[in-house]
Task: structure prediction
Amino acid sequence: MASTELEMEYQIQSEGEFEYLETGEGPILLILHGLFGALSNFAGVINHFKNNYTVVVPLLPLYTMPPEETSIDTLAIFVRDFIKLRGYKDIALLGNSLGGHVALVCATKYPAHISALILTGSSGLYEEAFGDGYPRKGDKEYLRKKIEITFYDPAMTTDELVDECHEIINNREKALRILYLSKSAIRHNMADDLPSIKLPTCLIWGRNDNITPPSVAEEFNKMIPNSELLWIDKCGHAAMMERPEEFNTALEGWLKKLQ
Result:
């Protein structure tokens, strides 16, 4: 399902500076997408959990922050302010890739209304850079090879996905902010902060993740006191997208244990 189709199915709401998707009823499951993460990446999670949860996806202002403020910390403040505005409590906070990194900062600096943390393919300790440079304008095959690294199954790299990433990278303002955020993520290593996280934490990881490899998941598991690591076989960096059924089963089982 493309982002636009998902946005049409679940109308994007706006309040103040915030735009967000909200659907379903029940406890709050708040999702933070990654650097290239469209809403469509979480279609399987949204459609599954809306039956028992209020699923919320704020659209992170990745490409609209002032350049000098484009950082992981600024995104965490954005999420904190969004939670405050909406009055959410007892949040299960789920983040993938860069969204996981933002979730970690929220869990360490602004944990008041967060009751559980779920990370999948999260940056924060180590992540493989997108590449050694951006492809030449129009070089979609170079870009396709880079995107394929994200997945275990190369077929996940659809023409639509390549086109979406191509548009982002060939927009100068967006490309600059991707660079700023990537550098911010590398600078903001969370190793010293992880032992202070008291929240129950679920790590759902693809065994074939080439961007935040299995060793990163094991480090997170070792350093976050109350954490559990769940593996998904034949799966890369975006488990909720590549193996949605296994991902949803793993997450649902873990959340039920908290009740």
Observations:
- The first strand starts at residue 13 and ends at 15.
- The chain has ten helices and eight strands.
